[in-house]
Every structure is written in structure tokens, then in C-alpha cells.
Fold GOT1B protein.
Amino acid sequence: EIGMGLTGFGVFFLFFGMILFFDKALLAVGNVLFVAGLSFVIGLERTFRFFFQKHKMKATGFFLGGVLIVLIGWPLVGMILEIYGFFLLFRGFFPVVVGFIRRVPVLGYLLNLPGISSVSLVLHATTAA
């Protein structure tokens, strides 16, 4: 419960920091809360094993490097690196998330609209490969 709260607040602060033109303080707090919340949700050992698997080292480098760059004070560059690293780290989960969202009444309708449907199919094809 605490981990989900920390992760939720982390995502909120990251989103709010991006809305407010990449505010350094909000993004830094969001990053710390997100990583701490993830550690609370799945445990420290499993978090370490997830991030430091041999085939995920590039993605982990981009993600944690982006966090470090945001903490240093370059929020735009750091967030670009973080987003790329996040995509590489969690690309295996995207088809599951898209499949779940397709079953939600209003969101499923939106995902099946012509332009969005083709994007979600491309996303599914690139992550499944």
C-alpha cells in the first residue's frame, strides 16, 4: 500500500513537473518517489534484479542516467533519457497494458479509433518482437 502510494505520487509529480515546463524540483521529487515506490512494491532485491539484468543494462543506464541528470539540474535532457530508458525497460509490459485498456469500456473505444488503433498495433508489433 505504501509502495503504490509512493509510486502514484511519483507519477503525479513527474506529470505535474512536465506540465509546468519541466520544473526541476517537481521532476526530482517525482523521480525519487517513483523509484522508491517501485522498490516498496516489488521489494529491494527484485527491483535490483529487474534493473540490473544483463540484457537490460543499456535501458537501466538510460533510465537511471536520466534520473541523475534531472537531479543535477538539466530536466529536459534528463526526461528525454528517462523516457527512452523507461520504454526500453518496460516494453515487454506494453502489450499487456494495451490489452487491458482495450477491455475498459471508454478507453477501449478510444483505442479502437482509426488513427489510434494503428499506433497501438505498431506499438504491439515492435514490443512483441
Q: What stands out?
A: The helical segments are 2-19, 24-42, 44-51, 57-72, 75-90, 94-103, 105-111, 114-128.
